[in-house]
Amino acid sequence: MKTIFKAGQLLIVVMILFSCKSHTPKDLAKENIIPKPTKLVATGSSFELTDKTTIYVEDDDMLIRPIGNYLADLIKPATGFKIEVKGVKQSEFKKGICLGLTENNVDLGEEGYKLSIDENKIVLKAYQPAGLFRGVQTIRQLFPARIESNKLQDGPWEIASGTIEDAPQYGFRGAMLDVCRHFFGVEDVKRFIDLIATYKMNILHLHLTDDQGWRIEIKSWPNLTAHGGSTQVGGGEGGFYTQEQYVEIVKYAQDRFITVIPEIDMPGHTNAALASYAELNADNKVRELYTGTDVGFSTLATDKAITYKFIDDVIRELTALTPGPYIHIGGDESHVTAKDDYVVFINKVQDIVNAHGKQMIGWADIAAGSLKENSLAQFWQTKPDNALNAVKQNVKIIMSPAAKAYMDIQYDTLCPLGLHWSGYIEVDKAYNWTLESNVKGISKENIVGIEAPLWTETIETIDDVEFMVFPRLLGYAEIGWSSNTNKSWDEYKVRLGNQKSRFEFMGINYYKSALVPWVDEVIIEK
Ligand code: TNX
């Protein structure tokens, strides 16, 4: 067949050939995203991020711009690209990365997002800014693992093409850090926040007071931290957050669409307070500071007026620093508080929390009291009686079963850190359960979501924290986010194994469980 081109046509063909860069075929369906997205369609090509790529913010929306900046900052160290973040009108956006809010996508909810990727552009849409932030975490996981490095890495920076539509199953997905048994400074807490944000968690519960230490400055009761915060388990130097530092943590979390829930544990777990102020003790005698790991030996004097003045002051100051809707009042293991006194105490404290405009959360032990329907009970014990009792009072449950979701529990008998009072939690056991089938009588409509606590009796450094948290946290994140259809450890462990290089580029000290098929990133030469 003879094809005759006129000179002009030939020129056009040549121009097209030269202007089209080849796009590496890539399969979005083979990416190892955790938590697993709801819907995903692969289109077999790829988008390449270069130093010319721009991040566009639709209508230059002030709420979106910080998320654009966050993405630009995230990819800068490894790529070396100084990506510009600019406003754009929707109709004018042609290529690059665009973040936008869509009025009509109400069904995406608070945190859902839609991502569409082709050879020229990545478009991320959500109904709310939090959804964009969660979607950015997906974009992040679609880049090669070395995007996580804080040192310059070689490209290419390609992302598989296709579409993702995603939204969480549960609106409450969190982790808890005990900063009492061992204290962790602001930088450690920020690292913890960054790590949980990567897997789309939205709650950081800070266990701020316990027998071994009071870690939040209360200006009206200064000795709580001056004395009560001075030590920790093992007798080493403790520490505390000034109110300014606490606000800095809250803001850092807020910028990542994470709500901080502060916990003031009471009436038990209060030795640090009882050692700081004699009048909080029933016998008016100040207690010694405690650096051991026993539980259940301390109690506030539940029948003294000063106790409730103290609690009111603490909750008032904490409320002023905490934009989130919840105050956690602990309530666990008050073994030396008389049962009747405990009930009266919980009811009074609930009123105080509500009077300051917050919702009360407590460990499920609080179900002994008369709970308001807007309070939340956190299930943790091996027996579900307390949680079932809370459900009977129409109170919703946060699922934190100690036998499955406690990150301080050892992986196995050889684990160098952690406790084993609730058994052992290998990585498969941490993943292989669902919130709604965990306790008979507690079903989906009774549950707000999941929280994985990290108690720190044996955990001293951020490296220790990471070892206990990784890789179990990813399983908890997926249990809370992804719907349960087709959930299987065999499928999940492959995705998890592919996080190895990512963990390593992030500098995470993780537990290399023998149950996980760990895979190194394959670097394809261009
Ligand atoms: C039980 S869980 C506790 C904590 C301990 C933890 C250790 C809960 C509400 N109370 O005081 O640190 O076990 O795993």
Describe the fold and architecture:
This protein is α/β, with parallel strands linked by helices and 526 residues long. The protein folds into 2 domains: 22-166, 2-Layer Sandwich (Chitobiase, domain 2); 172-484, Glycosidases (TIM Barrel, Alpha-Beta Barrel). Helices cover 31% and strands 19% of the residues. The protein is built from 16 helices and 16 strands. It has helices spanning 7-19, 65-79, 129-142, 186-198, 223-226, 243-254, 271-276, 305-321, 339-355, 385-392, 402-405, 427-431, 462-469, 472-481, 489-497, 500-505, and strands at 39-49, 54-58, 84-88, 96-101, 113-117, 121-126, 157-166, 172-178, 203-210, 213-214, 259-266, 326-330, 359-363, 376-379, 396-399, 447-454. The strands form 2 sheets. The protein has an 8-stranded parallel beta barrel with strand order 8-9-11-12-13-14-15-16, surrounded by 7 helices. Helix 9 (339-355) links the parallel strand 12 and strand 13. The protein starts with 6 loop residues before the first helix and ends in a 21-residue tail after the last helix. Ligand TNX binds next to loops.
